[in-house]
Amino acid sequence: MPTPDGVQVTGPLQPGFEEVLTDEALAFLADLHRRFDGRRRELLAARDTRYDALAAGGTLGFLPETQEVRDGDWQVAPPAPGLEDRRVEITGPVDRKMTINALNSGAKVWLADFEDASTPTWENAVQGQLNLRDALDGTIDFTADTGKSYALRTDAPLATIVVRPRGWHLTEKHVLVDGERLSGSLFDFGLYFFHCAQRQLDAGKGPYFYLPKMESHLEARLWNDVFVRAQEALGIPRGTIRATVLVETYPAAFEMEEILFELREHSSGLNAGRWDYIFSVIKKFRTRGRDFLLPDRAQVTMTVPFMRAYTELLVRSCHKRGAHAIGGMAAFIPSKDEAANAAAYEKVEQDKGREAGDGFDGSWVAHPGMVETCKEAFTAVLGDRPNQLDEKREDVHVTAEQLLDVASTPGQVTEAGLRGNISVGIQYLHAWLGGQGAVGINGLMEDAATAEISRSQVWQWLHNDIELEDGQVVTRELVDRLVEEEVAELPGDPEQYAAARDTFLSVAVADEFAEFLTLPAYERMS
Ligand SMILES: CC(=O)SCCNC(=O)CCNC(=O)[C@H](O)C(C)(C)COP(=O)(O)OP(=O)(O)OC[C@H]1O[C@@H](n2cnc3c(N)ncnc32)[C@H](O)[C@@H]1OP(=O)(O)O
Ligand SMILES: O=CC(=O)O
Ligand SMILES: [Mg+2]
């Protein structure tokens, strides 16, 4: 395959891949890499510097140097076509069947996910781009092994596509520019933008994105600069792109308005990425003993004080700036067991009802079966209004102390919680290493973010000698024993879980804390 100067594609070319990895598309990616990769690396290094200060006893707070931004009088761009009404958004991977099912689901938006719900295998990364292009051309179809065939519906509107590229920390090892790996973010963003921006505009919508795992407004500035360049390079008017930022790291919660400001001509709001947020809280203060100790994962609900402060501030910050506030993922998925199913629906109904009542403009579901539940909860509050940007929530005044108040979270650390974290972490990694980035386990959607909570809790409890509710101390011996017992409980030959178990131990037990579990896991893949 011909490639532009300095660009090497090392992944195998499956049928159709050459239609995505064209000479022009690769040249566009190389241009983005050469302009922006240095800054990406600097910003990742800045994350480490900030972490070192926290580990040394520092804290997080609102930035004095951006006070003017918070006090200033500015608004983000108005909602773009197809994004005015976002009362229900479905998320999921971009394989062919899920693409069709999500677009047909009745949700207003589909978050097409190259991130938490996706294993970034070469095949998933490139085939996903082909699937998005075919979906926009209306040519996508799929036939399952069962013979069931899938096509886009024509009797009702399809969901608006919003693509979530990988976070700044991930690379795409199958594309090298001047001998360096391309950023995974630039790969996913760049290929979608290159092939689909004009297609979306022709369809009366636009190139829309969700931006994950950012830790500062400077990272948002980098995205904004990428957008400006990408639009300029393809002759697409500046301000056409829209991006919703996931506020899902602890530091970002202190920079919500600054992030909106950086992206203001391209902004379509903020989302409360609750699962990665919890992970980030654990990660950032993992060595600080009981002050930042959370109870068992299941007990960290959206109504505990520090999570409440985070969502209240998010709605307040968005609506002050004319930006959408989008709620997070209730992880409950439908079950074949009737009682569990009823409980799952009730929990999603409550979660979405609370978000709508708090002023969010819409929210996420993980499964088509939950679309109507979310829609009804928001319609009960929004009525005919497409959103509730007019609910300014000026009653909300969240302090840094409230965002940092982890210590008052009620609950216990139990052996059942430790076992659950171990079992879910290993099962999830097993699926991930097999190419499936989201999976249902015990009636819950598990993805990269929820698995990060599981493994980082194990790490935190182990490295802070935490005592369980029954008096046992979390030691290496205890974790090793529970790992063996939990693997033995999983279906089939325990040996099939060897790679997942080893990866889990490397991110949950090893003294060196892996920044993201996907980093060592990605290196295990070809
Ligand atoms: C923290 C975060 O970032 S949250 C966002 C990232 N996470 C996600 O996006 C997870 C999205 N959800 C999923 O991937 C899936 O719902 C899973 C893996 C959890 C469960 O999927 P399954 O085991 O297939 O569930 P189930 O068997 O009930 O699915 C029923 C049907 O709904 C489809 N379906 C389920 N979830 C989705 C989805 N999110 N999008 C599109 N279709 C879906 C299935 O493909 C299946 O279709 P079929 O009947 O035509 O075969
Ligand atoms: O991406 C969403 C999250 O909760 O994490
Ligand atoms: Mg996330």
From TrEMBL:
GO MF annotation terms: malate synthase activity
Domain Malate synthase TIM barrel: 160-405
Pathway(s) of this molecule: Carbohydrate metabolism; glyoxylate cycle; (S)-malate from isocitrate: step 2/2
UniProt keyword annotation of Acetylation present: no
EC number: 2.3.3.9
A cellular-component GO term for this protein: cytoplasm
Keyword Transferase in record: yes
Leading EC class: transferase
Malate synthase C-terminal domain location: 413-524
Enzyme active site: R164 (proton acceptor), D447 (proton donor)
Gene Ontology annotations of biological process type: glyoxylate cycle; tricarboxylic acid cycle
Reactions catalysed according to its record: glyoxylate + acetyl-CoA + H2O = (S)-malate + CoA + H(+)
CDD domains found in the cross-reference section: malate_synt_A (cd00727)
Annotated keywords: Glyoxylate bypass, Transferase, Tricarboxylic acid cycle
Residue stretches making up the Malate synthase N-terminal domain: 5-68
Family assignment from sequence similarity: Belongs to the malate synthase family.
The protein's name: Malate synthase
